[in-house]
């Protein structure tokens, strides 16, 4: 029993050390330090600026906006992390999200069902629309050899253009000067928490994150996905059908993106407004979060929350300290640059006392972690 506890403590300490020395930690710390240098160079107080980011995003007046923004950022981060775990990059999140939103809007406006059933139907319509359109990109790679990165990105433009046409002409609200649909009928909306803008969509995204963690860590499919991401040729040799896996993962990714679009329409302002889903850049922020966490489930959640804090806190920083909110975008870029360089905190090597012979290395009792172990790589589990 004691040996089992010691082994658990040793593994826990190894994971903590790996996380502290990981490229992720180094990238975040380096981004904050360089951002502070920028602030000092412009004559601003970095402590006041960073304090405004924290209080403006996590304080009583900002936590609601952070959770609302985090719903979309986390949803898109999960959508892009799922195929990224297998080495697949889906860049068509904007198109899949927009199609999910327009499908939810049409369903909500014209469904003859009662309001609660209409909400459920609209969510399912958004998921199916995003999944079907993403599957088209996967078929382009499987059948015609077009790389998924290219096909998903190029297919995103026709989707956003189609949604823009629909909301500007056939579905446009009569008498309105804005390119938007009519407001959804009374009751066709996701339940909100109190008087805030946070809706039940946050719970749906959190459930999706939990399902992703369970599938990644507790199922054979999750093992196949991780194995494919680490070594696609070895996974194919072991019997993993890459084409089928690509289709399933990309369709799941598109379904989650469509769910994010449907949540955006079924929340305030309860209509589809042209550009409202794509202008905030949820797709690219979500991709940044997935890359930062190496598509690990827990790390993706933490990274998405981190970037949501930066987005909301940047507005508060601009109001209180007159520091432009674009600094938060600079911080995101610096984090990704350092992460791409795969830098780590250097090992601290203390000098050996003179006159003392080095000890001979002993055979370890347990095998050392391999390069594929997240603890040894310093990644989030």
Give a count of the beta strands, DSSP E runs of length 2 or more: 0
Mean pLDDT across all residues, rounded? 87
Q: In percent, how helical is the residue content?
A: 55-70%
Largest sheet: none
Low-confidence stretches: 365-379
State the helix count. 15
Structure in a nutshell:
The protein is an all-alpha fold. The protein has 15 helices and no strands.
Key features?
single chain; 381 residues; mainly alpha; 67% helix; globular; disordered C terminus
Description:
This protein is an all-alpha fold and 381 residues long. 67% of the residues lie in helices and 0% in strands. The protein is built from 15 helices and no strands. The protein is globular. The two termini are 25 Å apart. Residues 365-379 have low confidence and may be disordered.
Strand-helix topology:
Layout: H1 2-20, H2 23-41, H3 46-58, H4 63-84, H5 93-110, H6 115-144, H7 148-168, H8 201-218, H9 220-230, H10 232-237, H11 242-265, H12 282-292, H13 297-321, H14 326-340, H15 374-377
Helix pairs in contact: 2-14, 3-13, 4-8, 4-11, 4-12, 4-13, 5-6, 5-7, 5-11, 6-7, 6-11, 8-9, 12-13, 13-14
């Amino acid at each position: 029993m004691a040996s089992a506890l010691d082994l658990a403590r040793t593994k826990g300490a190894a994971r903590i050390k790996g996380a502290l020395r990981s490229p992720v930690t180094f990238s975040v710390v380096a981004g904050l330090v360089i951002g502070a240098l920028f602030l000092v160079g412009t004559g601003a107080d970095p402590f006041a600026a960073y304090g405004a980011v924290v209080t403006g995003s996590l304080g009583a007046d900002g936590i609601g906006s952070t959770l609302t923004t985090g719903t979309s950022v986390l949803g898109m981060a999960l959508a892009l992390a799922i195929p990224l775990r297998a080495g697949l990059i889906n860049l068509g999140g904007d198109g899949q999200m927009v199609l999910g939103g327009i499908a939810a809007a049409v369903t909500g406006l014209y469904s003859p069902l009662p309001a609660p059933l209409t909400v459920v139907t609209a969510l399912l319509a958004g998921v199916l629309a995003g999944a079907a359109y993403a599957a088209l990109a996967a078929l382009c790679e499987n059948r015609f050899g077009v790389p998924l990165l290219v096909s998903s990105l190029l297919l995103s433009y026709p989707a956003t253009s189609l949604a823009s046409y629909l909301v500007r002409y056939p579905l446009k609200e009569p008498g309105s000067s804005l390119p938007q649909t009519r407001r959804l009928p009374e009751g066709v909306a996701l339940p909100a928490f109190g008087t805030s803008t946070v809706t039940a969509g946050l719970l749906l995204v959190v459930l999706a994150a939990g399902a992703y963690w369970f599938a990644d860590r507790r199922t054979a499919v999750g093992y196949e996905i991780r194995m494919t991401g680490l070594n696609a040729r070895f996974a194919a040799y072991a019997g993993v059908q890459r084409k089928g896996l690509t289709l399933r993962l990309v369709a799941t990714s598109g379904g989650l993106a469509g769910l994010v679009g449907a949540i955006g329409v079924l929340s305030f302002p309860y209509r589809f407004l042209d550009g409202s889903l794509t202008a905030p850049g949820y797709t690219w922020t979500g991709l940044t979060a997935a890359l930062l966490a190496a598509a690990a489930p827990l790390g993706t959640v933490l990274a998405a929350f981190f970037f949501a804090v930066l987005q909301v806190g940047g507005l508060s920083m601009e109001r209180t300290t007159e520091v432009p909110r674009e600094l938060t975008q600079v911080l995101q870029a610096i984090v990704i640059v350092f992460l791409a360089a795969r830098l780590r905190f250097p090992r601290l090597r203390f000098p050996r006392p003179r006159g003392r012979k080095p000890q001979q290395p002993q055979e370890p009792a347990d095998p050392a972690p391999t390069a594929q172990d997240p603890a040894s790589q310093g990644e989030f589990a």
